[in-house]
Amino acid sequence: MRLLAPKATTRFVRYRGRLALFHNVARHEDYWRDYWTDAKRNALLNNGSQGEFGEFESVFSKHLPKAGRILEAGCGAGHLVAALKARGYSAFGVDYELEVVDFLNREYPDLAIHAGNILKLDLPAKSLNGYVSLGVVEHFEEGPDPALREARRVLQDGGVALISVPHLNPLRQRYLGRLQDSSISQGLFFHQFYYGPKEFSSLLMKEGFRVVELFPYAVEAFLTREHPLVARFWRSSFSRERLRCFGRAWIASFRGALAMRYSHMLMYVC
Questions:
Q1: Taking phi first (over 0 means left), then psi (-120 to 50 degrees means alpha), and beta for anything else, what does residue 214 get?
Q2: How many Cβ atoms sit within 10 Å of the Cβ of residue 22?
Q3: Does residue 170 sit within a domain?
């Protein structure tokens, strides 16, 4: 099955033996600055300020410690930090996109969002009780190892880490097998890698983490952007809002093996 690229400006590539996504933006900073528009940030922060965890309700409530400090590394719009604080957690965020951090500090000064590099956090060793990083470490072209090593450094023994990356689900794995290894240029630039559970669990274990649970999520994102049948229907004029609402409810019901098969992201609870 040939998967569709998530956007017209992106392309799947077999790169360094892994499935990777390339796009037409040379610098990650430029991509994220354009991605986090004021409207998108404000909408997410409005939900976050009401303590909404969305898909993460069960996994956050089950695993994150109520006592002690929790860092979101690569916090983006800051909405998860806002949600955690609204629920009574002692949370703060770090992100490297200065314009986003400046916006958050100006408009939401109580959020405690700091500019920083998750590869070299300005934190003492073993100073955190919780570490959350969702959809971040896959963007390092050299691999996630330095980020995972730094996460382990700042996390207390017995602390909890929730780290997610794009999931090399069975359909993506099958598609990867059809691709030849490439060092792509043609005006496209590296965006992210996709990781299977076995490989990423091994990377975590190498840095001293122990994976206790896998949490698949963002099934809708995979099906409606990449699955050739679902995505084409979703984009068609026939797919009216009522049908989309039904489709969203159906997709949201995916659990267990179905979610693992079709999820866009996979969270590793350590």
A1: beta
A2: 22
A3: yes
Interval 99-121: pLDDT, tens? 889 989 998 899 999 999 999 99
- Amino acid type, 219: V
Domains held by the chain: number: 1
Q: Is residue 248 part of a domain?
A: no
CB 109 within 8 A of CB 72: no
pLDDT digits (tens, 9 = 90+) for 50-69: 889 999 999 999 999 999 99
For 175, the domain range is 10-219+263-269
Scored b (16 or more CB within 10 A) or e, 229-242 reads ebbebbeeeeeeee
Q: Is residue 138 part of a domain?
A: yes
Cα 232 to Cα 239: distance, rounded to the nearest angstrom? 9
Measured in whole angstroms, the distance separating CA 219 from the mean position of its chain's CA atoms is 13
If 0-12 CB within 10 Å is exposed, 13-18 middle and 19+ buried, where does residue 2 land?
exposed
DSSP of 24-74: S-S-HHHHHHHHS-HHHHHHHHHHHTTT--GGGHHHHHHHS-SSSEEEEES
| Angle in degrees, CA 137, 206, 197, rounded to 5 | 60
115 assigned to some structural domain: yes
Lay out the sheet containing 189-193: strands in order across.
10-15, 18-23, 189-193
Contact 223, 231 (CB under 8 A): yes
* Domain harbouring 54, CATH code: 3.40.50.150
pLDDT tens figures, 111-166? 999 999 999 999 999 999 999 999 999 999 999 999 999 999 999 999 999 999 99
Largest CA distance in the chain: 55
